[in-house]
Amino acid sequence: RFLKYRGAGVNGDQIYPSSPNETSPNGHRRVKLHVSSPPFSTSAAELTNSLPIHSASTAALSPASSAAEDKRCIIPNRLTSYEGPVFGQSLESWQQRLGYPLPSALLHMMDHIESVGVTAHGIFRRPGGKVRTKALRDLIEKDLCWANFEEWQPFDVADLLKQFFRELPECLLTDKLSLILVNVYGCVSAATQWHLLRWVLLGLPDENRVVLQKLLYLLHSLIRHSDVTQMSASNLAVCFAPSLFRFASSTNAYQTSIGFSPRRLRRTTSGPDPKDLADQRTAQLSLTAMITQAPALFEISTDILRKTNIIPNRLEPRSLDTIIPGSSWPTWIQAELGRLIRECSVSRSKNWTVVSKEAWKVYQTGSGAGENLEGLEVHYRKPTSATGPNSTPSLRTWRCSLPIAESEPKKIFEHYWYHRQSWDPDISRVQVLDAISDCVEVCLITQTTTPPQPSAGFHVLRGHQCVLDNGGCAILCESVSHSESDSALGSINIVGRIYQDHVYIRPQGDKSGCRVYLISRVDLKGHSPDWYVKHWGHTLVRRLLNLRRSLQSGAPIAQPINQTGSAISTGSTSQYCST
């Protein structure tokens, strides 16, 4: 039977939809944003003025559009020196370590199940072999990037995936929201149930929403082959509900058992509690609806979106003529450079707040796990109430710095300016749209995204200065509204906003190396303000550590981007990478 499953092979024609209007739920074909079913409908004018949303924090809430060809998920190589356990860790901790709330092994696992699970009768219902599942788990615990699942039965892999969700410190739907959903879902009308499910998604932490969307899209892809697997949406819901929900009975079980003798405890728990059975049935019904309507579930109207705290600011980027009036780019560089140097000086540190001791411990186990953090500094500045064309009241400004054992600032600058996509897993492509001068250009920066998240990127104006008085270098970067931006979008669905993302490379006095500063305030579109407080500092720390690791390894470098229209791969300027 196992050979039959493997022999079936499941090529793209067998797995993925052939119709251009269908979608492969894990992002192999993307859908155009549309809003359906009242009260989430919206007018054409609203859609025209709607705000782009990114990340399944809410990027999940706006599925990407595309006519791209079907293909397997491209999983970025997110490096980490973390050597602890894989199972039993929170999604938030993975977001801090990797920049994504699931380790690569779990992504490969879900991708594998989507491929072979379509021919596995009773997938997720039939248990895997206990010894085989334990052996596979041990391999993943040793290598969180494990990707070789071809030698394992699909039931072993599926069983291990359920184990991962079952052992999360808090259930995927969170203790609070799962109890609310169980208590309310069965008491309201069908139309209100749909409304309730979407509001529950908006109430989830960003990391949980990303993972829930990934899982629901996987399960949705499997029910299209229920005639073979005999696993309908309701059957899958029965298998997964205990792993995704927290029931009141499970939280009170320990309390009710205290003080009872074993014999009396057996008498009091001799039969199932009708309330427990009703709660489990309600959870299964709500999860069935989520699986069946997974693609539509993550689409919301702009009216609903405006009632959330997801989008911190609607201000559009400044135009190129506003930033550089009369093409006077030296004035812009000198003004921004002066502010950058002042912000990085020791005498100005009083304007910054050092992260607390508790937060520092999180950095040691999160983005800095297993790394040498000597000399690392993490500061932030709280948002002010000031308003203006470049202000964001709800976003913090972060300043992170790290010493790097490279005595030539220009080498670090070139590595960052020309080759960032070769060492930064968060960036997949940088393309120059307009070279204003030798040191100032308008670029399209494409982010690395994991399906079913929509593709995202930034239109930025960036410049550099390599001849500073102290021998240092600087890179300036901010979002810009440019005439060529719309035509250059290509496959990018979400355009984020960079208020500032500057780099300052300062030689150290003892000539032992350089200290690299990052000053950043960015809106990726789709995350709540609380997400930036928890994770953006970790994003900058990972960037610094990846830069240091790349310089120390001396690995071969990708083709530099130094001409208009050139990019990571050679070819036409109208071609864009799709992650």
Automatic annotation (TrEMBL):
The keyword Phosphoprotein applies. SMART domains: RhoGAP (SM00324), START (SM00234). GO terms for molecular function: GTPase activator activity; lipid binding. Residues 420-534 form the START domain. The keyword Transcription does not apply. InterPro entries: Rho_GTPase_activation_prot (IPR008936), RhoGAP_dom (IPR000198), START-like_dom_sf (IPR023393), START_lipid-bd_dom (IPR002913). It comes from the Eukaryota. The lineage of its organism: Eukaryota, Metazoa, Spiralia, Lophotrochozoa, Platyhelminthes. One of its GO terms (biological process) is regulation of Rho protein signal transduction. Residues 1-31 are annotated as: Disordered. Gene3D superfamilies: 3.30.530.20, Rho GTPase activation protein. It holds the Pfam family START. Residues 16-26 have a biased composition (Polar residues). It comes from Paragonimus westermani. Keywords: GTPase activation, Phosphoprotein. Residues 89-298 form the Rho-GAP domain. This is START domain-containing protein. SUPFAM superfamilies: Bet v1-like, GTPase activation domain, GAP.
